């Protein structure tokens, strides 16, 4: 079995037993989600890169000091570190990030369902890229707690239980924030008459 097929838990164990390459596999496995989450929070690629590197410095330090005991929940753990380091940045800068689901007929609305798989032609790729930019811009108009849960759920792919633990709220609060985020996105889309499909 190659290292890329091993679970996070086994890779952490291997790293702690001297296999330095296990950490590289863990970083490669999770770097896209972690970096995307940080970038969505700080809105600056260079700053996101700096914080991303700080995240893995902290991961290495915590692992080597023997203080890691997340019982196999490696991704939520590093996402929590990424979240905390991003918030620390805003505290140091003395500012918080600039953040500024039901339909009327009772049906649930999920903006992310509109980002369906499209044909691989150039025009569709351009349209999909524009839709993703529009969605990211719309997310910035949500209140901070709604933005956070939406990003963690749809961009970092965390469960609501993981989001609740990471943000120190109940699972019902996390679910409520997501519901209101989707309701508010729907209102913004309707108000601005934005079309999120081809």
Description:
The structure is a single chain. The chain is an all-alpha fold and about 200 residues long. The protein has two domains: about 5-90, RNA polymerase sigma factor, region 2, helix turn helix motif (Rna Polymerase Sigma Factor, Chain: A, Orthogonal Bundle), CATH 1.10.1740.10; about 110-190, Orthogonal Bundle (Arc Repressor Mutant, subunit A). It has eight helices and no strands. Helix 2 (about 20-40) runs antiparallel to helix 3 (about 45-65), helix 4 crosses helix 7 and helix 7 crosses helix 8. The protein is elongated, with a radius of gyration of 19 Å. The N and C termini lie far apart (about 45 Å).
Keywords:
198 residues; mainly alpha; Rna Polymerase Sigma Factor, Chain: A; Arc Repressor Mutant, subunit A; 2 domains; 66% helix; elongated
């Amino acid at each position: 079995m190659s290292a890329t097929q091993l679970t996070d838990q086994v890779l952490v164990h291997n790293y702690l037993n001297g296999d330095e390459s296990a950490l590289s596999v863990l970083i490669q496995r999770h770097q896209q989600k972690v970096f995307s989450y940080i970038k969505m929070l700080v809105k600056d690629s260079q700053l996101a890169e700096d914080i991303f590197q700080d995240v893995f410095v902290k991961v290495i330090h915590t692992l080597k000091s023997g203080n890691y005991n997340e019982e196999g929940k490696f991704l939520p753990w590093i996402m929590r570190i990424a979240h905390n380091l991003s918030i620390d940045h805003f505290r140091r800068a003395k500012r918080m990030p600039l953040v500024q689901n039901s339909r009327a007929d009772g049906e649930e609305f999920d903006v992310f369902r509109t980002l369906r798989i499209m044909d691989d032609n150039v025009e569709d790729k351009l349209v999909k890229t524009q839709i993703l930019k529009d969605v990211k811009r719309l997310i910035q108009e949500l209140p901070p707690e709604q933005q956070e849960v939406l990003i963690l759920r749809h961009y970092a792919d965390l469960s609501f239980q993981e989001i609740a633990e990471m943000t120190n709220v109940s699972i019902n609060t996390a679910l409520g924030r997501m519901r209101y985020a989707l309701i508010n996105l729907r209102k913004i889309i309707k108000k601005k008459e934005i079309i999120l499909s081809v």
